Structures are given as structure tokens and as C-alpha cells.
Amino acid sequence: GQQVMQIPQYQHVQEGEDFTTYCNSSTTLSNIQWYKQRPGGHPVFLIQLVKSGEVKKQKRLTFQFGEAKKNSSLHITATQTTDVGTYFCCRGSSNTGKLIFGQGTTLQVKP
Amino acid sequence: GAGVSQSPSNKVTEKGKDVELRCDPISGHTALYWYRQSLGQGLEFLIYFQGNSAPDKSGLPSDRFSAERTGGSVSTLTIQRTQQEDSAVYLCASSRDIPHYEQYFGPGTRLTVT
């Protein structure tokens, strides 16, 4: 249905290592948003992707939207302890305001 | 300007009681969303408002849950006859418009049903 699957559920990395989380859908996505939630905090918007094959960068973060608009990824280069948190992807309906979040990937970074 | 605010920040209630959760969105934001997040879990969509109307209520877990929005601003989420499984953090978010501008989340209300 409209669910989005995120993998992995958890990731532990050593500081300086790279990290990638993936978001997959069985149906075409009109857009995809990414959010970060720090422990004890609330989700904070990172980016929205709309176009097929779109790639956007924010410093060490690279976001991609698949050519078929059915998957997306978030890649962090050289993780830092400040990257700790849960990263959620979120899909929107093309014609309503309903939004569906993935289950999130929780990142732990060992200093 | 001010962000999204929610009240109360914490609520402890006895099973069977009714509770009201309040959300003040960012001024001028026409879209307002309610989510529920259980400990260590993802965000469960409950309902959204476009202005004062709620086009999609399918996310509400049961008929004990209701929400309203007045004046295109403040929203209240009401849970009647609370159950222990209602314990969670209830998050509100607002966005400039639909479709799908970035959402700004409030700090949430942590509800504990004893």
C-alpha cells in the first residue's frame, strides 16, 4: 500500500565512518521528505526531493531520489557524534495532505 | 517567530478519564498534523487539517479519538476514556500549505495513562 520501508533499523558506526539509510516504496512517490530526530527531541525537517533522479547535498549529507521515484537514500560521509539520532523518510500523497513516515533508522556513533 | 507549541508538555491521567491536548501552529500555516509516537517507534499519522477541515481522519485509532481546529489556528486532540495503550508522545506539526511543504514539529505532549 502506501507504506515506506526503511532499512536498516539500527546502525552503529565508528566516528569517521560513512552511513547510509534507505527508504523504499512499492508504489511511485510524488515526493519524499527526510527528517532527523535527536534523542529526546522532535523531528526536524532536513530536505524534500521531488524530481526523478534528484540528488541534493547538505555539507556531509547526500540525499538521492531514485529514477523510478520508488526509493530514496540518505548518505552521511565521515560521521560525527552530532549525527546521532533517528532519521525518518516521509512520503506524501499526490493529492491529499496525508503523510506516511517510515519506521526510521537509528544511528549511533562511537567516538 | 515562534515555533509550534504544544500543551501540556506532560500529562498523567487515570485509565478511563478524558484528556485534551492542545497545539498552537506557526502563525500563517494553513496545514496542521497530529502524530503519535510510542517509545522507540516511528511516527503514526493520526489526522491533518487544511484550514479548519480535516479531509482525512482515517489515521485516528478509534472513535475515542477526535480532533478539531478553530479559526485556522489552534487545534485540540481529545481522547475519551483513555486506555493504557494510548500512552505515547503526541506530536503536532504545521506547514505553510499542502501539498507537503516542510513540517515544523512541536515539542510534543507525553501522555501516560495509569
Describe the structure.
The complex is a heterodimer of chains A (111) and B (114). Chain A is mostly beta strands. Chain A is built from no helices and eleven strands. Chain A has strands spanning 4-7, 10-14, 19-25, 32-37, 44-49, 55-58, 61-65, 71-76, 85-92, 99-101, 105-110. The radius of gyration of chain A is 13 Å and the shape is globular. Chain B is mainly β and 114 residues long. Helix content of chain B is 0%, strand content 50%. In chain B, strands 2, 4, 5, 6, 9, 10 and 11 form a seven-stranded mixed beta sheet that branches. A four-stranded antiparallel beta sheet of chain B has the order 1-3-8-7, with no helix packed on it. Chain B is globular and about 35 Å long. Chain A binds chain B through residues 30-31, 33, 35, 42-45, 48, 88, 92-104, and chain B through 31, 33, 35, 41-45, 48, 50, 55-56, 58-59, 91, 93, 98-108.
Give descriptors for this structure.
heterodimer, A: 111 residues, mainly beta, six-stranded mixed sheet, five-stranded antiparallel sheet, globular, B: 114 residues, seven-stranded mixed sheet, four-stranded antiparallel sheet, 0% helix, 50% strand
Distance between the termini of chain B: 37 Å
Could you say which structural class the secondary elements and strand pairing of chain B correspond to? mainly beta
**Radius of gyration of chain A (Å):** 13 Å
Mean pLDDT of chain B: 92
| Low-confidence segments of chain B | none
- Cα(first) to Cα(last) distance of chain A is 40 Å
What percent of residues of chain A are in strands?
over 45%
- Overall strand count of chain B: 11
Q: What are the secondary-structure elements of chain A, in order, as H or E? A: EEEEEEEEEEE
Q: What's the tally of helices of chain B?
A: 0
Radius of gyration of chain B: 13 Å
* Fraction of helical residues of chain B: under 10%
Quick check: average pLDDT of chain A? 93
The share of residues in helices of chain A is under 10%
